[in-house]
Design brief:
Largest sheet: 9 strands, mixed
Number of domains: 1
Strand order of the largest sheet: 1-9-8-7-6-5-4-2-3
Helix content: 40-55%
Radius of gyration: 17 Å
Shape: globular
Oligomer: single chain
CATH class: Alpha Beta
Distance between the termini: 35 Å
CATH topology: UDP-N-acetylmuramoyl-L-alanine:D-glutamate ligase
CATH architecture: 3-Layer(aba) Sandwich
Length: 277
């Protein structure tokens, strides 16, 4: 990593993240607390849908609409019967986790098209990164090194050598907020916000961790949709907050040892409570 690139990124600490946790007021209801639309998972990878939905609900939203394919929907409802599977009003979208963009089913294709045209803030993960050129609202993309290399035609090694520069350059080129996942996560906005988060233990390098991060981020975006509508750079601060919550929850679940992604998700509420206290 070049010192000049990384030095432009400000570390986003737990104290910074605290201000971006939406605490329900006494007069809030399920709609005013934020409704997240989710199109994730597939017949091949239904678990990604379950993990993202679990993480979003543990982070806190008023309602979650899961609108992905039927097999994944069955798994989601079995795990979380409070998830709503009928279309309706949402404040934000989470798209792409556990989806192969070269094997989209009809349901997913239609939902992607609807979300891209909605003008709402969208989290684009994994199999939905290609939608960045079709969206009409603010977006945050959440690639890891290999996904960013594939999407940009760069070498994985080049991104790994200087992830700070890669995040900043892609944010400017795509006109999107970029959350580049790694042991140290870099967040860059096209408006020039540069943030870094590094609260995650090395045990977090495990399958499904990115699906959980997507759910945490989707929930935070849904609960801050009004702020995003007035300040596109708010997405960068929300993305960095999601990374902090994700990393701290992993550390809490790990206690110095291996973790599963569900144990990380189970630790999210206590992690948020500790941030707020």
């Amino acid at each position: 990593m070049t010192d000049s690139a990384s030095s432009t990124f400000t570390t986003w600490a737990p104290a910074d993240a605290r201000a971006w946790i939406a605490v329900p007021k006494d007069d809030d209801d399920k709609y005013s607390r934020g409704v997240l639309g989710v199109v994730t998972g597939s017949d091949q990878y239904p678990g990604a849908a379950v993990l993202g939905v679990e993480a979003a609900l543990h982070t806190g939203v008023g309602m979650l609409r899961y609108l992905g394919p039927s097999r994944a929907s069955d798994f989601v409802l079995h795990r979380r019967p409070e998830a709503v599977t009928s279309p309706g009003r949402v404040q934000a979208w989470l798209l792409g986790s556990g989806i192969d963009p070269d094997a989209l089913d009809g349901v997913t294709t239609n939902r992607f098209t609807e979300a891209a045209a909605s003008g709402l803030p969208i989290v684009l993960d994994a199999g939905a990164l290609f939608l960045r050129e079709q969206t009409t609202g603010p977006i945050v993309v959440t690639p890891h090194f290999r996904e960013l290399a594939k999407a940009t035609g760069r070498e994985v090694a080049a991104i790994a050598d200087d992830p700070a520069s890669a995040a900043a350059q892609v944010a400017e080129q795509w006109g999107a907020t970029v959350l580049l996942k790694g042991h140290r996560t870099y967040v860059a906005s096209p408006g020039g916000v540069r943030l870094a988060a590094e609260s995650a233990p090395s045990w977090l390098a495990t399958a499904g961790a990115g699906d959980a991060l997507g759910g945490i981020l989707g929930a935070l975006v849904a609960t801050h949709s009004d702020e995003i509508a007035h300040d596109a750079d708010a997405l960068a601060r929300i993305a960095a907050t999601a990374s902090v919550v994700h990393g701290l929850a992993a550390a809490r679940a790990s206690a110095g040892g291996p973790i599963t992604v569900l144990s990380l998700i189970d630790a999210v509420p206590a992690t948020i409570a500790a941030l707020l206290s």
